[in-house]
Design brief:
Order of helices and strands: HHHHHHHHHHHH
Oligomer: single chain
Structural class: mainly alpha
Number of strands: 0
CATH architecture of one domain: Orthogonal Bundle
CATH superfamily of one domain: ABC transporter involved in vitamin B12 uptake, BtuC
Shape: globular
Helix content: over 70%
Amino acid sequence: MFDDFLLRALVGGLGVALVAGPFGSFVVWRRLAYFGDTLAHSALLGVALGFVLHVNLTVGIVVICQLLAILLFASQRQRQLASDTLLGIFAHGALSLGLVTLAFMDDVRIDLVGYLFGDILAIGSADLGWIFIGGGMALGGLLWLWKPLLAITIHEDLARVEGIAVDRINWLFLGLIALTVAVMMKVVGMLLVTSLLIIPAATARRFAVNPEIMALLSSLIGCGAVALGLYGSFQFDTPSGPSIVVGACLIFILAFLVPGPGSKKALSRN
């Protein structure tokens, strides 16, 4: 029995890492870390929605993340408030609204620590289905958008001149990130979800010579962080989600002890 849940945790974690790598690369290139944090914070409102409507909690998280992605995309057109200000308002507003909603539900008892920091060891067959089906859909969508999205990331104005539908591509990309964040919630939780997007990608950037290699390395480094974190969690009886993030941080630190070509040849800062 022990072997079964540990194997499910490993398979689920590896699935999330494989999906997070390419998305994390774009998050690093486009400086969207705070956007990922905002989506993660809103996930608790999705949990509350799931309880209110009596639907699968993952469905509630996906719905709220998608709605917030649309709202953020639409709000970027206004000029009165900076994007980071809006992200802060949406992040803390959605998180607080979720907590208040749950407080009104006297008959509901949830493990907030599990949602905040993840509970990968509790992954079941249904969770694996969400990870691989939802994550596969998100990854397939990213592969379909890869070339135009990369062109927009390098130079948005030039991409417009070349006839790329910049607004539509950006909207679709934000929706795919929202789906990815919802899938990752079960593994590392809402407070740590951005770490699995950013840290492996930031590590891979040091060694990548082109965007495709960086995306691949990000996935592999994420898989290594999952395996290292689960091993540490098993050996030292530590929380699994934070242990995975600590594993990713250790790999990041070790990477700087090894010379790499990525700082010169990877996708330049945008």
